User: Which sequence fits this backbone?
């Protein structure tokens, strides 16, 4: 099952690693614990909307840019799933 | 502050009312309580990723379609905010 938190985590991690930043640096700037950020990135914890904004801000990104990434990834994933189902 | 849960709530409510359906009907099909769905629609509660999938499924929508709506709305809202800031 495709979960929103999984894709939000992927996008946040991709943005952070593209910037060459550590979990510690982003967690500090976002004022969240390193463990919390790590769990959010791995899709193991739902980020509250407020803390998601803090993390986006710490990464210098807008919420819309992260959610656009998420929407594109979800759409691509669902297209692949439909193709596999059609082929079955 | 723009919150993700507010925009998810708007999109879910817009989809439900466009289908002419009641909270009760969608909550029953999604196997969530009416109060929970109402709070999610009003942006007062964060929907867990699993229950968001159940609500999308009850509405006959994909998660990607709801999240694309959310991304478009967030982008439009941020553009308006930037315009107001520029004009100030």
Assistant:
């Amino acid at each position: 099952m495709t979960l929103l938190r999984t894709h939000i985590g992927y996008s946040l991690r991709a943005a952070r690693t593209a910037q060459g930043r550590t979990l510690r640096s982003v967690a500090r700037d976002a004022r969240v614990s390193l463990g919390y950020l790590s769990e959010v990135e791995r899709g193991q914890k739902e980020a509250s909307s407020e803390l998601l904004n803090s993390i986006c801000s710490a990464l210098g990104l807008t919420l819309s840019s992260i959610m656009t990434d998420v929407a594109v990834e979800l759409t691509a994933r669902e297209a692949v799933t439909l193709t596999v189902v059609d082929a079955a």
About this structure: The interface with chain B takes residues 1-6, 46, 48-50, 52-53, 62-64, 67-68, 70-71, 74-75, 77-78 of chain A (CB under 8 Å). The longest helix of chain A spans residues 63-87.
